[in-house]
Amino acid sequence: MTDTATTPAPAAQPPRRSYAKLAADESREDYSLRYAPHSFRRWGPGTVAGTALGGIAYLADFAIGASIVFAYGFTSGAAAILAAAVIIFLTGIPIARACAKYGLDMDLVTRGAGFGYFGSTLTSLIYASFTFIFFALEGSIMAQAMHQAVGLPVEIGYLLTTLVVIPIVFKGMGALAKVQAWTQPIWLIGLVLPFLVLAFEAPDAWGAFTHFGGTEGAGSGFSWIGFGFGTGIALSLIAQIGEQADYLRFMPAKTPANSRRWNLAVLAAGPGWVVIGAAKQLGGAFLAFVALEAVGKTHALEPIAPQLEALRPWLGGLALPVAAVFVIVSQIKINVTNAYSGSLSWSNFFSRITHRHPGRVWYIFLNLGIALTLMELNMFAMLGKLLGFYSNVGIAWIVAVAADLVINKRLGLSPPYIEFKRAYLYSVNPAGFGAMVIASTVSILAFFGLFGTYAEAFSTFIAAGLALVLCPLIAWATKGKYYLARTNTVNGPGVEVADITATHLCSVCETSYELPDIADCPVQSGPICSLCCSLDATCGDVCRTASPGGAVILPLPTVRGV
C-alpha cells in the first residue's frame, strides 16, 4: 500500500516523453536498452543460434593462435589455448542461460548480477572497448586481404572495412540474421578448404607442427611461463560471451515442447562458440607454421598469407581471389556483430550518464570511429601485449558475474532472478563491482611485473581467482543488502500472474510494454517503462525512499510469469 505520509507528491504532472524517430523504431533499436519482449522474439532457437554462431567467423582467432604458438612454442601454446577455452566455456554457461531466459543483454544482466545500476556503467565501457578493439583487429585483417588481392593501400582498406558494415548494422537484428545465413556456406567452404589441401599435399606438416619450438627460442617443451602468458592472451576473448548474449536475448521462451532444442541452442550459441574458437586458434597457428618459411614471420601472422599458401597447390592463380573472398566474408560476418554490440554498449553507457537516448544507431558511428583510429595507428602490430592487458579486466568482470549467477543465487546471497530496472537497484553493489575492481587492479599490477615473473605470467589467473572468491565473500559480508533498493512487488518472483505477455501503458512515453519492462513510479503515480525510468534526471530516485518497504500503488493487473 502507499505510505501517504512519506510519499512526496509531485508539484505538477511531469511532461510526457517522446523519442526521436530512430530511437522509437524498435525494428532498428532491437530493444537496445531494455528487456526483449516475447512478442519480438519471433525467431526459433535454431535461427537465433545460427545467427549468433555466424558472428564467430572472425579470423583474429587465426592471428591470436599463431602469435601464441610463435611466441611460446606448440606445447605451451596449445595448452594455453585449451586452458583458456575451458575457462571461457565454464563462465559462459550461466551467463548465456540468464540472457536467454530473461531476454536481457550483458549489460542488463550485469546490473542485477552484483554490480548495481551505475556499477555496471564501467563494464559497459569494458565491453565497448572489446568491440572496437576486435573490430580494429578484424578490419586490419580485411584490409590486408584487399591489399594482397588488388593492391589497395591498407589505409584506404581500413576506411572501406569500416564503411561497409554500416548499412547492415543500421537495420538491426533482422538484417544481421539474413547476412549471417546467406554468407555461412561461403565461410564454411573457405574455412575447411585450406586444411583439406594440406591433408593431401603436406601430410607430414601436422607432425612437424607438434614439435615446433616457436620463433622466439621458447623451445618445443612445456613452459609454465609460456603457458601463463599464452593463456592470458587467449583469455582476452572471454568478453565474446557479451556479443553472443546480444543474440541470445532473442531466444524464444523455453517450453516443454522446445526444451531440448532450447538448451542445445543456448549451449551452442553461448559458451559453445569457444569450441570452434579454440579449434580456429590451433588451426590458424598450423597454417601460419606451414607458411612461415615461404612468407616470413610478419606475413605468417596475417591470415590472408597462410590461406593463400595453403590453397596454391590446388587452385594456382585462383588461390588469391578465393582466399581474399573468404577473408573478406569472414571479416564482414564478425564486424557487423562488433559494430552492433558496440552500439548497444555505448547506448547503455550514455543513457545512464547523460539521461538521453538519441537511438542505438548513432553510437555505431562512435564505435566505428574509435576502431578506425586504432587501425590507422596499426594496433595489429601490438596484438599480443594489448590483448594480454585487456584480458585482466575482462576476466575479472565475467568471472564476477558468473560467480553471482552460480554461487550467490544458489546460496541465497542474491535475489533468485535478474533485476535490471533502475527503480529497484542500488547505484553500486559492492559484491560484483568491488570484486571486479579489486581483482582487475591486483592482476594489472601483476601484469606489469610488480609481483615477479610468475605473477606477471599468471596475472589473468589471479584476476579470475580473486573475482571468484571476492564476489560471494562480499555478498556474504554485506548480507546481500545492496542487490535490491526496494522490493519489486510488480514483477518480481512470487507474484501471481495471468499472462506475462500482457502489455501495460507507460505513463511517461504512453507506449505499451510487457510487464517485465515495467516498474512502479511514485513520481508518475503509475507504471513507467525501464527506459523512461533510466532517462529521468529529475525524480531524485524517490521510489527507493518513498516508504519503509519502498512500495507504491501501481494500477496494473496482477500477471503471471513464465
Query: In terms of structural class, how would the helical and strand content be classed?
Result: mainly alpha
Helix content: 55-70%
Provide the low-confidence segments as ranges.
1-12, 494-498, 547-562
Beta-strand percentage range: under 5%
Any idea what the radius of gyration is? Answer: 24 Å
Q: Using DSSP, what is the number of strands?
A: 4
Structural features:
single chain, mainly alpha, two-stranded antiparallel ribbon, 22 helices, disordered N terminus, disordered C terminus
Structure notes:
This protein has helices at residues 21-24, 26-29, 45-54, 60-102, 106-115, 119-150, 154-163, 166-171, 173-201, 205-209, 224-234, 240-248, 259-269, 273-300, 304-315, 319-354, 360-376, 383-408, 430-447, 453-457, 459-477, 530-535, and strands spanning 503-505, 512-514, 518-521, 526-529. The protein has 562 residues and is mainly α. α4 (60-102) crosses α11. The protein is globular, with a radius of gyration of 24 Å. The two termini are 26 Å apart. The model is unreliable at 1-12, 494-498 and 547-562 (pLDDT under 50).
Fold blueprint:
Layout: H1 21-24, H2 26-29, H3 45-54, H4 60-102, H5 106-115, H6 119-150, H7 154-163, H8 166-171, H9 173-201, H10 205-209, H11 224-234, H12 240-248, H13 259-269, H14 273-300, H15 304-315, H16 319-354, H17 360-376, H18 383-408, H19 430-447, H20 453-457, H21 459-477, E1 503-505, E2 512-514, E3 518-521, E4 526-529, H22 530-535
Antiparallel strand pairs: 1-2, 3-4
Helix pairs in contact: 3-9, 3-12, 3-13, 4-11, 4-12, 4-13, 4-14, 4-18, 5-6, 5-18, 6-7, 6-16, 6-17, 6-18, 7-17, 9-15, 9-16, 11-18, 14-15, 15-16, 16-17, 18-19, 18-21, 19-21
